[in-house]
């Protein structure tokens, strides 16, 4: 049997927990289930993540980092900041239409951990604030008269699409979000 490094163990545990937490919910998945699915001993898991709260927080932070990486990559394919903003919603539409789509991990986490001081809750809130701030920065670059307002409106569209697509037809609501974002961006950032 090949021994894994501590980092390989950490990645394995986090990958398994990410799959389980996203599909079933954080509170619904016990550490015993994570350990079983990882096919490692208790000590291996707890050495990397001493508590379930630590694992849940790492899951949220990992999903937040992955979201930004994908969205910045999509936005980076464009020069015009308006197109960069729209690219985010085009990726959202693809995500929402996927068969494994179960909603926004940040919104799901906030629902499961509404306590304001829970570390997973705080990580989810921080992510949403960072998304709003990124939207605001792009809106400034796009010449928006009120970049804070358009950033907040786009965040509402983003979160509304993520939440609605998890309950109803994801493909339809993802496309609607792209259309709404286009209209808001065109109105707020008319260009030159």
Q: How would you name the oligomeric state of the polypeptide chains in this document?
A: single chain
Number of E strands: 0
The rounded distance between the terminal residues' Cα atoms is 64 Å
Largest sheet: none
Alpha plus pi helix count:
9
Q: Which percent bin holds the helix content?
A: over 70%
**Which overall shape is indicated by the principal axes computed on the Cα atoms?**
elongated
Q: Which stretches are poorly predicted, pLDDT < 50 over at least 5 residues?
A: none
Order of helices and strands: HHHHHHHHH
Q: Find the structural class using helix and strand composition.
A: mainly alpha
Mean pLDDT over all positions: 93
Strand content: under 5%
C-alpha Rg (nearest Å): 19 Å
Provide structural commentary:
- Helix 4 (52-75) packs across helix 5, helix 6 runs antiparallel to helix 7 (119-141) and helix 7 (119-141) packs across helix 8 (147-167).
- This protein is mostly helical and 192 residues long.
- The chain has nine helices and no strands.
- The model has no long low-confidence stretch (mean pLDDT 93).
- It has helices spanning 6-24, 31-38, 42-48, 52-75, 81-97, 105-112, 119-141, 147-167, 170-188.
Short description:
By secondary structure, the chain is mostly helical.
What's the topology here?
Blueprint: H1 6-24, H2 31-38, H3 42-48, H4 52-75, H5 81-97, H6 105-112, H7 119-141, H8 147-167, H9 170-188
Main attributes of the structure:
single chain, 192 residues, mainly alpha, 9 helices, 76% helix
